[in-house]
From TrEMBL:
CDD domains: AdoMet_MTases (cd02440). The keyword Methyltransferase applies. Pfam families: Methyltransf_25. This is Class I SAM-dependent methyltransferase. It comes from Mycolicibacterium sphagni.
Amino acid sequence: MMAYMASEITDIADMPRGGPDASCLDRLLETDRQEYLDRDDIDADVKRSIVTALDRIGTLFREHDRNAELVLREVADIADPTILELGAGHGALSRKVLEQHPTAHLTVSDVNPESVAAMAASDLGDHPRATVGLIDATAIDAADGEFDLAVFALSFHHLPPAQAAQVLAEGTRVAREMLVIDLPRMPSLLHIAKLAAMAPLVWWPFAHDGLISSLRSYSPSALRTLGAHAGLDVDVSTNPFDRQVLIARRR
Ligand SMILES: C[S@@+](CC[C@H](N)C(=O)[O-])C[C@H]1O[C@@H](n2cnc3c(N)ncnc32)[C@H](O)[C@@H]1O
């Protein structure tokens, strides 16, 4: 049987999305191409349409509810938890947490100014337990330990390895614990089948970004390597057909 050699990662920036032990095929199934959401040359209306589609599809498949359950589980023992949502996009996750937890305080943020303006103009802007703000997850403007929990949902794969490790360091600096919820990295043959099924829809900006997301998603071993690089304790629970969940804490 051929063994995949776990190569030494000397520079985290060079780590494959499949992790240090990624197979040759897995290493081919990644891209440096950016999603429309991350590109400065893409019209704000196109980006808005993607964020709106993420919100609608997340509502249809109850993703926001399931993500809110994960958030609520992490703060179950805290009376009045303070929660920082990074990369909130449309704010649906924070909205669910505010609905389901009567005393939680949410800081709802994104690095995209149009998304922040749209969330501030929505019900979140007037909510007595919510603050909406522009925050870059790689350089969080907050004091050490200011929050009980930082959460980053469906956004981690947007960042290349060095910045992704920086998000873990920053999230666990400003919060007692960081929860990352992201797309799975499928086994290579299934991944190829998924990409083939998505390819005809690539004209649709949401599918374009979905296809690139798939190629940029991190494997469990990549997530553990990023956590170790940031000097953190991480737990990764994963299922190749469902979301991956990483919980990071300072050692
Ligand atoms: C695919 S959307 C996810 C939106 C939402 N969290 C959800 O679950 O549907 C990715 C989000 O990450 C944001 N993002 C990308 N890089 C970021 C960074 N460095 N800091 C904060 N947010 C970032 C994007 O602006 C975008 O809103």
